[in-house]
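Researcher: For the record, we're logging two predictions in this thread. I'll number them. Prediction 1 follows.
Model: Prediction 1, sequence and structure:
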Amino acid sequence: MIGSTNPKKLAEFYEKVFDQKPDMQEGEWYGWSVGSTFFSVGKHSEVKGKAKEPQRMIVNLETKEVEKEFKRIEKTGATVIKEPYEMQGAMIATFADPDGNYFQLMTPWE
């Protein structure tokens, strides 16, 4: 779950990232079934502004097509933090969402 002061804007962003409409929407809460997890964004009273330490917690989205998905997501307007690179045989790329939260595309762990 990602808390936001503007969950609608964040939901519109992640709709493009996941390339699908939310599986759930209730008021200011939105959620997607992504792989074997449920990813949600919503209004949170304790959250103010952009993430101050976006590296503290990074959501990893697994894909075997890191470079292809990187190019697709980059076109949505996501902020590129780090272009695809190889690390111990895995490909990784890092973006920031509109609230400044980091998320990564990663090759699935074998």
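Researcher: Logged. Prediction 2.
Model: Prediction 2, sequence and structure:
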Amino acid sequence: MTKSCLAVRHVAFEDLGLLGPLVGARGYDIRYHDAGIDSFEADTLVGPDLVIVLGGPIGVYETDAYPFITSEIAAVAARLQTDKPTLGICLGAQMMAAALGARVAPGPAKEIGWAPLTLSEAGRRSVLAPLGASPVLHWHGDNCELPAGCKSLASTAHCPVQAFARTPAQLALQFHLETEPARFEAWLVGHTVELNKAGLDPRDLREQARTVGPAVREIGRGVLASWLDSLAGAAA
């Protein structure tokens, strides 16, 4: 029987990336749910075998400007209570944190570009262990507190909670492992206003994507594949 994967997408170019083939190869039928276009009901995210909540350039606290956020957080909360496999990436991780009652707010500085993490002891025992001192792609300005009952897996100087897990099957990553370097130009175009406001030159980020992106892609691919494989093992 085919398994179902629902990916919540906030902007078109921040899609599953290299996660798509990995998820598909493990027998999942993938469907996108476009936030702000497709509505969130209380049970929207409850049914699928796997839910992946992707990134986007808004904050979970901007509910006045983007009213769908309230119903999305409620849908994520209902999903988490099922204990079924869930992955949150960047905004998706912040949605998970908010759904679990943790505060999400602007951090002291934007983190944009490739830089390493510091793994916690729990992180070094998790599927993130292969990241070690490898750089990963950061693209966020908001930070979240660690939700109650969750384990912190990674941090940076400006972001104390870069990754957390509620259970091994429910993982939140503030950073991006799914981004395909070959498609990174879409990020530079889509986020041009943010880059300009942050005083960042797209040529520098393009060069990072060219020089470190391919190696990081392979490490990230391995981490994501290991996490997906762990779901099958847990369900066996």
